[in-house]
Specification:
- The complex is a heterodimer of chains A (270) and B (352).
- With 270 residues, chain A is mainly alpha-helical.
- Chain A has one domain: MetI-like fold (Orthogonal Bundle).
- Helix content of chain A is 73%, strand content 0%.
- Chain A has helices at residues 2-5, 8-29, 40-43, 48-81, 84-95, 102-113, 118-125, 137-160, 165-173, 178-189, 191-207, 210-214, 223-232, 237-259.
- Chain A is globular.
- The two termini of chain A are 28 Å apart.
- Chain B has 352 residues and is of the alpha/beta class.
- Chain B folds into 2 domains: 29-135 and 258-318, D-Maltodextrin-Binding Protein, domain 2; 137-256 and 328-350, 3-Layer(aba) Sandwich (D-Maltodextrin-Binding Protein, domain 2), CATH 3.40.190.
- Chain B contains 15 helices and 9 strands.
- Chain B has helices at 2-21, 43-53, 65-74, 86-94, 114-120, 172-183, 192-205, 216-223, 236-242, 271-281, 284-294, 301-305, 309-313, 321-324, 334-350; strands at residues 31-37, 56-62, 81-82, 130-143, 166-169, 209-213, 228-232, 246-249, 257-263.
- In chain B, the strands form 2 sheets. In chain B, strands 4, 5, 6, 7, 8 and 9 form a 6-stranded mixed sheet that branches.
- Classes of the chains: A mainly alpha (270), B alpha/beta (352).
- The interface between A and B is large, with 37 and 36 residues.
Chain lengths: 270, 352
Amino acid sequence: MGKKSLAAPYIVWMAGFIVIPLLFVFYYGLTDKSGAFTLENLAAIASPEKVSALLRSLKLSVLSTAICLLLAYPLAMILKGLHVKKGSFVVFLFILPMWMNFLLRTMAWQTLLDRNGVINNVLAFFHLPGINIINTQAAIVFGMVYNFLPFMVLPIYNVLIKIGDDTVEAARDLGADGVQTFFRVIFPLSMPGIVSGITMVFVPALTTFVISDLLGGGMVLLIGNVIEQEFTFTANWNLGSGLSLVLMVFILISMVLFAKYDKDGEGAAV
Amino acid sequence: MKKRWMAAAVAAALVFGLFGCGGEKKESKGQVKIFNWGEYIDEEVIELFEEETGIEVVYDTFETNEAMYPIIEAGGVSYDAICPSDYMIEKLIANDLLAEINFDNIPNVKYISEGIMEGSRTFDPENKYSVPYTFGTLGILYNTALIDDEIDSWEALWNEEYEGNILMYNSPRDLFVAPLEILGYSINTTDEAELLEAQELLLKQKPLLQRYVMDQIKDSMISGSASIAMCYSGEVLQLQGANQDLKYVVPKEGSNYFIDSWVIPANAENKENAEAWIDFLNRPDIALKNFEYITYSTPNTGAQELMDEELLKNPAVFPGEDVLSKCEVFHSLGAEGDELFNKLWLQLRDAQ
């Protein structure tokens, strides 16, 4: 009883900032402006420009999730190999940029990647060809990978360090070589971390509108931008909420697909 | 179980308590409550007003017309003077939210240029509800160090020579001004066929653009990473201060021009003080001081007489009657109009 009452602030928190807002989204999403029940806001996703924005969002977020995974896994393996103190120092370095505001960091990349920006000036100084990716899909993927990579590294690292050296040694004793040990022991054991990392990168990447505005220069339409416009320009909260509900379905599907790998919730350690 | 609910109740009481405690100061006679755009006054002017009249100023700011409107409509807070833009004043008048101004208390209104008073009549037909504060135009800003041509038409933004160096506004109403003016249609049209033609032009233009932006126009134009952009005149003096090669022009086809005016809400508690405030702002020396701080054009002819010749020649500061006569004020398009613009804008952004 005494211990349970300690949970009260969290219950208030969750009710106030998660459950109630979510109920609002459902309410607005399933009603029209006069408050009558309707499914039109959900059906609105079928218009061609919204479908295409959704598909583009899915493509870019899957791509950046895959890149994050390819970058993060080897890094987590290296971190695991390091001495504990060194390892945690590198992890600390990884978290350090997150002390700065996400918007500021993204805006900084806007300046760095600009055609007359810092990177191109440095390249020009060495007579190297410049990079011209700003305001394209490539810049958006870059921004997603940059911003969300820590969310992939940390869960994988957390799972990997829990795999004891004795497990690996046992595999070796039983005749497995390095490659076999990795694919048959380490990789399957790290699955919960991978799943949790994928979810934590995929979900924000799918819904972002800031990265596409700043690094895509407003030239690339993502589903997040469509929803944002409904709230900021037409003030149509009903339609914006309806589209958000559709997006939630996609997120739920991706989570269900992965959930069976993460039964113990071990990876959810961040 | 009871305890848990107690804790929740205490937390809730704390949260609501925070809201409950604000405000409720005793009304004194000498007060005026002002609701203005952020960064839209020289704060010394507020102090001067308090010193000279003994009226205490309570000053709040808003970010956009759309954010201001529901606050006035709800009527929970009463302001004595607010400063919205043209189309929003139109909406406030239509919904009976404004009081008629007693111009006997505002003798300085005589300084306001006749042209702007006439422009005001498009949203305040009898000049009964509003006193113009600032105005400006939408035009083209270009870098004369990078562009040799003399630019005078919206079509310059479709010139293939500038490919990759063109910036357009990231807000549908402003963006559509350029193609609608080229086509010779009203910038307030809600005719779908006309708007589709305008969208067609914008679709052709998209491959030539560097990007769609709002405030980043400033950085890009100052640094020279873009050479030509749509721009509101109010920003120009500041930009020219940072890069002298920048030149501003209102295209010959015409454009949008806006007027931000002082109005008095119907539920104002200190109407006479509000009129004293508006009169004070229209005293030529005060209007000039304010202009120097906010750099949006002032309609005050008294202030204009005190300005340098150089400033008066700058088309960004004073477009002149011949230019203004070609320009149109935005009108509120209603929910349907807004949704049509939004759809066309999303389709445009979706195109690759």
